[in-house]
Amino acid sequence: MDHTDVDNVKPTEECHEVHNVDQSWHLSRNAQANIGDPKFTAAFSKCMASWWTTEEFDIQWHSVVSEFNVQKHPWVIEKGNTRHLWAQAYLSGHFFANIRSTQRCESMNASLAIALKHKKTYLDVVRAIEDGISRMRMNELKADYLSSYTKPFQITKLVDLESHAVAIFTRESFRAFQDELIRETLYRIEAEIKSLSDECQYYILSKYAEKNRKFEISFDSRTKTLICSCKKFETVGLPCRHQLHILKHLDYTYFPGTLIQSRWTNDAKASAPSYVDMNVSPEVMQMAWFAALRSTSSRLCYIASKTDDSFKTARDEMKKLIEELENSFGLNDSVNQSIVVNNVCDPQRKQHKRKEVPKNKVENKIRRCGYYNGEGHNKLTCHQVKLSLSTSIQPT
């Protein structure tokens, strides 16, 4: 039985063109739970993650199913029928920005699990949500700072290509790019075919020690477009190792614009759409604008607080901008601005009434000695204690 609701979703006729990415960890766990053979789980995981063609996947899948004799197992039959939802071979060519179907909900659950425990107040939950949002924005601010003001190490001799990648990609994207750049040396060109017009060239690459693995790449010199049969660029958004090998072969010192996905560049936010959806309420849009301005202003405050001159310049410019906006909206100090009253409070605690004792039944507590249990005095003022002490210290 599966341990995730994602696997239970069946594709319908209306959603054949909708592509989903199941969480690989969940599928591997489900394979172990249903089949119970670690070797099958390893083979299934390899089929799931390998960058094969659909024909190569079908051959490998039938081979694995036959090897472990699970052709009639219901779970295997279901996974075979829905392989276009989880096999990398069928997902290649569709851009998902490295986001898995259960990634966001599980991340939110992990962040709020502590605050949503028993006996937590509304205030604790709201604070946990605000803290989570603050952590996300702080991580984003840190990533922006690292991408703008730090320079990673270059680990190959292709200095020009790496330098161009450093300038355009974020640090996380650059690390993924470096992994591909290191592995391009494992490939070599086995054949080069030119078209009649000399505008398109076709290359066939083979991998070191795996000559049966072939990759076809086409290059259009007019548009400077590189298309690889592995479709990793269309799937991930970063140049694959085969495309990088062809760029090196053609003596390119920069990346053509066709190999740059704006999603992973330092200017990704600048290209984000800024249109307003008319179906969204004004309150929601105001909250979104507030969050965006707060994120931008936090970076401004961080940079401007480094020196006294930058601090004064930023403060004066912000005062001017605030004054201009207040005048444009008709706001000033004499006008009573709207104050949002927080009506969400913690529930009132019920105070239990103490049992009242009638006055005529009040009994005076009698002080007793803790040494001899005598009445009217305590251990410190007990004359019997003093007498015994004086007797014990007399010389014998």
UniProtKB/TrEMBL annotation:
Keywords: Metal-binding, Nucleus, Zinc, Zinc-finger. InterPro entries: FHY3/FAR1, Znf_SWIM. GO terms for biological process: regulation of DNA-templated transcription. One of its GO terms (cellular component) is nucleus. It comes from the Eukaryota. GO terms for molecular function: zinc ion binding. Residues 215-251 form the SWIM-type domain. It is found in: Nucleus. Belongs to the FHY3/FAR1 family. Putative transcription activator involved in regulating light control of development. This is Protein FAR1-RELATED SEQUENCE. The lineage of its organism: Eukaryota, Viridiplantae, Streptophyta, Embryophyta, Tracheophyta.
